[in-house]
Write a structure and sequence with these properties.
By secondary structure, the chain is of the alpha+beta class. Helices cover about 30% and strands about 30% of the residues. The chain has three helices and 15 strands. The protein has a five-stranded mixed β-sheet.
Length: about 240
């Protein structure tokens, strides 16, 4: 729309609130009404009735009304009688363009995730929460929720390099975790991703979960170059 020659944009209209005569085709979401006289108004409760009353005072104009969410609801577009839509133009709105850009990035990252999963053995590749990177975990029994335990990558070579750096740490703790688990559990095979590891902030203390049901944990402390079990406790179900 225009305001004293300035183009203004209002987003967020539901499809059901837009008349069929100006509904964008071909998947577009922007409606250009700058060739028409447009009155824009915001209302609270009873928005349609108020917009209709306004339209009666200016029957030759298009009335676009939007609700004020703190006061009520009601939005839509009222067109003049015998409205000719030939001058309406449609376009890809900024919101739509941004959504498509995000979707394209997400698809590209998903393709990278599959590539990484196929190229690097012994790992689990997932999409990061923001869809801007691939999150890589070791596919083994011991896992950790620590951010430093996970590898993030935006390219295959980067993933290979970062996994190569973390692999010795993953394997070291997996062997240690299995040893502690088998000492306290009768299970021969705990299953991948079944042994939780917590490393303390001091980096020389750790806990290993040996039973999910009873929440039994073995406590370890680093002494010199070795890790020694120093305690065992059950946190309860």
């Amino acid at each position: 729309m225009r305001r004293k020659g300035e183009v203004i944009t209002k987003d967020g209209f539901e499809n059901r609130s837009v008349p069929t005569a100006i509904m964008p085709p071909n998947g577009l979401t922007g409606i250009d009404l700058t060739s028409y006289s447009v009155i824009f108004a915001t209302f609270g409760r009873g928005g349609y009735e108020k917009a209709k009353a306004l339209h009666e005072k200016a029957p030759g104009a298009i009335v676009v009304y939007k609700y004020e969410w703190r006061n009520g609801w009601g939005e839509g577009v009222l067109l003049p009688e015998r409205f000719n839509s030939s001058r309406v133009r449609f376009y890809k709105s900024a919101k739509q363009a941004l959504a498509e850009e995000k979707e394209a990035k997400k698809n590209a990252m998903e393709a990278l995730r599959r590539e990484i999963a196929e190229a690097i053995p012994g790992i689990i590749a997932r999409m990061a929460y923001t869809n801007e990177a691939v999150e890589i975990h070791p596919n083994q029994e011991v896992y950790s929720s620590r951010s430093a335990w996970v590898v993030y990558a935006t390219a295959l070579e980067e993933a290979k390099e970062e996994v190569a750096k973390m692999r010795p740490i993953w394997e070291e703790w997996n062997a240690r975790g299995l040893e502690v688990f088998h000492r306290h559990s009768e299970k021969k095979n705990p299953g991948y991703g079944s042994i939780a590891l917590i490393i303390g902030n001091s980096e020389d203390e750790a806990e290993i979960n040996v039973d999910h049901n009873t929440q039994a944990w073995a406590s370890l402390r680093k002494e010199g170059e070795n890790w020694i079990e120093v305690g065992f406790r059950v946190r309860g179900c």
